[in-house]
Structures are given as structure tokens and as C-alpha cells.
Amino acid sequence: MLSDPALRPGWPATLRWGPVELHPLRRADAAEWSRVRLANEEWLTRWEPSSAQSWAQRHTPTAYRAVRRRVLQRARIGLCLPFVIRVDGRLAGQVTLDNVVRGALRSGNVGYWVDSAVAGRGMASLAVALVCDHAFGPVGLHRIQADIRPENGPSQRLVERLGFRREGLFRRYLDIDGDWRDHYTYALLAEDLPGGVLGRRLARGDG
Ligand SMILES: CC(C)(COP(=O)(O)OP(=O)(O)OC[C@H]1O[C@@H](n2cnc3c(N)ncnc32)[C@H](O)[C@@H]1OP(=O)(O)O)[C@@H](O)C(=O)NCCC(=O)NCCS
């Protein structure tokens, strides 16, 4: 049963710019998601939540369907916005705006990954920029937070390129790749970039 749309402004949505399209996780994405995730085990493991299950167990089409059901339930009541990234029509990653809190805070946490085959082309930052503009626009948030391990240079470069500022260090904050890991916390506020996040990226000549 669908919940009240007023609980989830800005969801569901499809966002597009150039070769990049973001859309809600689809049931039909199971096989493609499983194939891409399995092929990227080495590329992704270091940045992923710890798990008692093997990578292969966590990335079957059945596992995808279970995860999808869970996140879409949360999306229906406005707690998260889980997008798949497509580049030139191919499933190439995910951006999730999660832990959405309303009231006086109006904040969410952004997480993302891309297929190593599309990395280094600006596609991930384009996808995250689209989600940030959507979050500050139709979703109505004021703050987007990104928590990043100090070892993750590409991810820090991505958010810095989009205008996020580093606000501090959370000690042993998230259980990632088998241990509690320190994370830098970055944030972007709606008023930081009056021309929008994508607008800044384009103005800087980043494509
Ligand atoms: C973090 C991650 C998404 C970054 O992906 P990415 O492709 O490096 O990020 P971008 O889309 O911003 O692309 C930037 C790179 O493309 C290059 N680039 C090429 N054309 C570009 C363009 N038009 N615009 C911007 N960058 C462009 C940049 O120079 C940059 O290269 P650099 O890393 O050598 O500086 C990716 O490394 C990843 O999925 N890692 C594994 C999962 C992960 O770490 N998730 C985040 C956890 S916090």
C-alpha cells in the first residue's frame, strides 16, 4: 500500500543530465546490479559496511530484491531516496540519500559508489550533484552530510569539487570493512551554492 505522498516530498523521481540518469531501484535491475557488484568486489570492499556474509552471498539477484524491498519501504515514508545511476543506459552505480530527518534539522546523509569502469570521468560527481540539487529543491532539505574515511581520496575530492566543506572527524564512527573506522564529516548547506550544485560544477567547466 502506498503511504501519504506528503511524507516523502521529491520521491519517487528520475533525474537526468547528459549521459547520466538516476532512477529508483527497479525490480528489473536485479541481474545487472548483481553482475556489476560482483565484478567490483575488490574496488568496493574497503568502503562497505562489515558483514558476516561473503561478498558473493550479499550480491545475488535475490539479495538485491531483499535490499530493494527494505529501502523502498523506507523511501515510502520519506526516510531515504535510493537511486540507481545509469551512464549511457548501463547500470553504473548508486546514490542514496539516507537518514533523512525533517523538523528543524532537515538533513540527510549521502552515500554513493560507481563501477570502476566509469570512474575518473566525472560521472559520479555529476550523479551526486543531481541528487544534491533534488534534495535542496523538491525534497526540501537544508543540509547534506557525507562521511568519508581519511583514506578515501577520490571520495573526498568528489565532495570538495561539489562545494562540501569538511566539518570534523568522527572517531571510529562506522563499522566498515571489518572494523570501526574514523570518518571525516563533510556537509553542504542549501545556501552554500545559490546557483545549485550542478550549476557550480558546470560553471567550473567540469563538464
Ligand atoms: C568515490 C567514487 C564514487 C569517486 O568516483 P570518481 O569517478 O573518481 O569521481 P568523479 O565522478 O568526481 O570523477 C572525478 C575524476 O574524474 C576526472 N574527470 C574527468 N572528466 C571530468 C569531468 N568532466 N568532471 C569532473 N571530473 C572529471 C577528474 O579529474 C577526477 O579524477 P581524479 O580522481 O584523478 O582527480 C569512486 O571512487 C567509487 O565508487 N569508489 C568506491 C566506493 C566509494 O568509495 N564510495 C564512497 C564512500 S564515502
Automatic annotation (TrEMBL):
Q: Which SUPFAM superfamilies match?
A: Acyl-CoA N-acyltransferases (Nat) (SSF55729)
Tell whether Membrane is among the UniProt keywords: no
Which Pfam family, any one, appears in the UniProt record? Answer: Acetyltransf_3
Q: Does the keyword Transferase apply?
A: yes
Q: Which GO terms describe its cellular component?
A: cytoplasm
Extract the GO molecular function terms from the UniProt entry: protein-N-terminal-alanine acetyltransferase activity
| Segments forming domain N-acetyltransferase | 34-191
Q: Which UniProt keywords apply?
A: Acyltransferase, Transferase
- What family does this chain come from, according to its entry? Belongs to the acetyltransferase family. RimJ subfamily.
Q: Supply the name of the protein.
A: Ribosomal-protein-alanine N-acetyltransferase
Traced from the root, the source organism's taxonomic lineage reads: Bacteria, Bacillati, Actinomycetota, Actinomycetes, Geodermatophilales
